[in-house]
Design goal:
276 residues; alpha/beta; Rossmann fold; five-stranded parallel beta sheet; 11 helices
Length: 276
């Protein structure tokens, strides 16, 4: 069961990464701000943002994957990574249901709206999208100054990260199929901020699928694996002993949860920088 759950988490992350711009952000106009007291978060990174803004006590429902901060683990589970549980969600009587544009299932969202629930969706495709969405969430919950401070702190932390030189890398987020990170994404931009060249170049695809032939041709010197754990990572990459990163033991396996587009992302980027 644990392995099945892990696979579902990976699929959820990949779906988040692959589905972009599903529908537009719905939010209360600031001039007609509705007082929000009971919030449901449909995404782990949004849960983290809400707690970082100091409104964790107003969060009444989260997903089964909302494991940070620790206080979020005790909250009612009203959704999995991909879809809400209508009965459980209605039971917590939310004023506002928050999700991400990138992977909130449209049909499920429309059903929530038909039930009379107020919804708001935010984009986290790029770093700038993330910063803007944090500010929008802060505006939404009456914490604009806290949101501006959080964004400023995150910028400061990112700017302090030491730069690597003369290195190239491939970020991998899925194995079957092999899904990697393009430059025009928040993860691709993190790599660029670290001074590392993305072997995917300027591909317009945010998360391309690679076949074995293309992987071998790219031959990255570093592989950053944020799939699902060190042991599984090593087993997978042992299939490709001819790759430079495998040959020179330059596979960096990191926890995908740390790379959510939210408050802990700069710390995760710093941890990655230390291993380059």
């Amino acid at each position: 069961m644990r392995r099945i759950a892990s696979i579902m988490a990976a699929l959820g992350l990949i779906t988040t990464l692959l589905c972009t711009g599903c529908f537009s952000t719905t939010a209360f106009p600031i001039e007609n701000q509705v007082v929000v007291k009971r919030i449901v978060s449909l995404k782990p990174n949004i849960t983290e943002i809400l707690f970082a803004l100091g409104v964790g006590n107003q969060v009444v429902g989260v997903t089964t994957w909302c494991n940070q901060p620790i206080a979020a683990r005790a909250l009612p589970k009203v959704a999995d990574y991909l879809r809400p549980f209508p009965e459980q969600l209605l039971a917590v009587h939310p004023d506002l249901v928050m999700g991400s544009e990138e992977n909130s299932a449209k049909n499920a969202t429309l059903q929530l709206q038909k039930l009379g629930l107020q919804t708001a969706f935010f984009s986290f495709k790029t770093l700038e999208d993330m910063y803007q969405s944090i500010q929008k969430i802060g505006d939404q919950v009456g914490r604009p100054k806290e949101a501006a401070r959080l964004v400023k702190d995150m910028h400061t932390q990112m700017n302090k990260i030491p730069k690597a030189h003369d290195q190239n890398a491939l970020i991998v987020v899925g194995y079957r199929p092999l899904i990697v990170v393009g430059a025009q994404t928040f993860l691709g931009e993190v790599l660029s901020a670290l001074g590392v060249q993305n072997v995917m170049g300027n591909t317009p695809l945010p998360y391309p699928h690679l076949n074995t032939e293309t992987l071998l041709k790219l031959n990255p010197t570093i592989i950053i694996d944020i799939t699902m754990g060190t042991e599984r990572s090593q087993q997978f990459w042992n299939q490709f002993p001819m790759l430079s990163a495998v040959k020179h033991n330059r596979i960096i396996s990191l926890n995908m949860d740390d790379f959510r587009p939210g408050p802990r992302l700069p710390a995760a980027a710093m941890q990655l920088a230390k291993q380059l």
